[in-house]
Design brief:
The protein is α/β, with parallel strands linked by helices and 203 residues long. It has one domain: Rossmann fold (3-Layer(aba) Sandwich). It is 35% helix and 21% strand.
Length: 203
């Protein structure tokens, strides 16, 4: 899929105020500092569509971007960042939860995971929460340029084994990416394109 247009539409903290259009949405979420903004900019081929920052926890609202005029990329606040106040954390969690529970346009979530690290409890718990609520999702392993191919394969295998040793009967779909090297871009966009075809053929 080629990205011909990518436009910021709105930011808000109220799911009821999200765009009222019958278009498929793909929500991107992960722990703070996982490289979410960089990934979004890489996917859309825009240098500053999503705001990047050296300070984790920058994204604090539900951000909607309309792509090619027919689907939404949704940038959600990161979770698990200690420097965000407890009050704000609860607020983030509430509208993150509200979004996933109430947003009918949501087609799939993408949970971002830093491929350099061991499986984190908060990531595992969040994916389990999505599974329990029957919300389709894929894993996006980020920062693959930081590791050698054999280490990437080893870390991905370790992560999948960890998932399968828990509540999962089969492993979620996953992608290995690097924002700086544009690794995984075509595969991820083609995956979204395929889902969009099914969405529009059924609507």
């Amino acid at each position: 899929m080629k990205i011909k247009s990518a436009d910021f539409v709105m930011s808000n903290s109220d799911v009821a105020m999200c765009p009222n259009e019958p278009l498929p949405e793909y929500a991107f979420i992960g722990r703070s500092n996982v490289g979410k903004s960089s990934l979004i900019n890489m996917l859309t081929d825009r240098k500053s569509l999503a705001k990047t920052s050296g300070r984790p926890g920058k994204t604090q609202l539900i951000n909607h971007f309309k792509i090619n005029g027919n689907w939404f990329l949704v940038d959600l606040p990161g979770y698990g960042y200690a420097r965000v106040s407890k009050k704000n954390k609860k607020t983030f969690q509430k509208y993150i939860t509200d979004y996933f529970v109430k947003r009918k346009q949501l087609v799939s979530a993408f949970v971002l995971v830093d491929i350099r690290h061991e499986p984190q409890k908060i990531d595992m718990e969040f994916m389990e929460h999505l599974g329990e609520n029957e919300i389709p999702f894929s894993i996006i392993f980020t920062k693959a340029d930081k590791l050698k191919p054999k280490v990437i394969e080893k870390n991905v295998d370790s992560y999948i084994k960890k998932l399968l040793s828990g509540v999962w009967g089969e492993a979620p779909n996953y992608f290995v990416t690097s924002s700086s090297k544009k690794i995984g871009r075509d595969k991820l966009l083609d995956y979204i394109y395929t889902i969009n075809l099914d969405f529009f053929s059924e609507s």
